[in-house]
Amino acid sequence: MIRPATLADIDSLFGIAVYEVRKYERLRLDTKKLKRSLRHVISSARHFCWVCVDSQDRPNGVIVGIVNENLWAQRQSCNIVLWVSDIPGEGVKLLRQLRDWIHSRRAIKVVGFAPDTDDIDPRVWQLAEMMGFKRYGGAYLLYN
């Protein structure tokens, strides 16, 4: 099951993010900044944060989209900064929910993510393309 993240989810999301950051051996984690950022994203209607949960309603997957002013376009852009799920099928549900959210917001022109690891099942990219994302160089973008 997927649902919007709540402030009660911060500790679980923090754990997921800490696990994922291990892939980047040269990054030094700022735990205060991470928790503050998660709190901000969850509390703001400007950004997107949904989770997939287990049978006890504990998050074990998340998608986080940060909306910013686009550097050169007239409308905003959304960057998917964290997207992970260990439950088959739930990750695609999270991406579909984000896509639908983007389509409901005309102020956002483009949403995208750049895969940064080689150990992801290639079917993930096929599913993203089926949902309307197109590959541009190393990034997958969806224009609104």
Q: Looking at the structure, what is the overall shape?
A: globular
Sequence of strands across the biggest β-sheet: 1-2-3-4-5-7-6
- Kindly state the mean pLDDT as a whole number? 91
Q: CATH topology, anyone? A: Aminopeptidase
Query: Would you count the extended β strands for me?
Result: 7
How many distinct helices?
Answer: 4
Q: Determine the structural class based on helices, strands and strand pairing.
A: alpha+beta
Instruction: Give the CATH class.
Output: Alpha Beta
What does this structure look like?
This protein has 144 residues and is an alpha+beta fold. It has a single domain, classed as Gcn5-related N-acetyltransferase (GNAT) (Aminopeptidase, 3-Layer(aba) Sandwich). Helix content is 33%, strand content 31%. The chain has helices spanning 10-21, 31-43, 90-103, 123-130, and strands spanning 2-4, 48-53, 59-69, 76-85, 108-113, 134-136, 139-143. It has a seven-stranded mixed beta sheet with strand order 1-2-3-4-5-7-6, with helices on both faces. β6 (134-136) and β7 form a beta hairpin. α1 packs across α2 (31-43). The longest helix is centred in the last third of the chain and has 14 residues, at 90-103. It starts with a strand and ends with a strand.
Topology overview:
Layout: E1 2-4, H1 10-21, H2 31-43, E2 48-53, E3 59-69, E4 76-85, H3 90-103, E5 108-113, H4 123-130, E6 134-136, E7 139-143
Parallel strand pairs: 4-5
Antiparallel strand pairs: 1-2, 2-3, 3-4, 5-7, 6-7
Short description:
The protein is of the alpha+beta class.
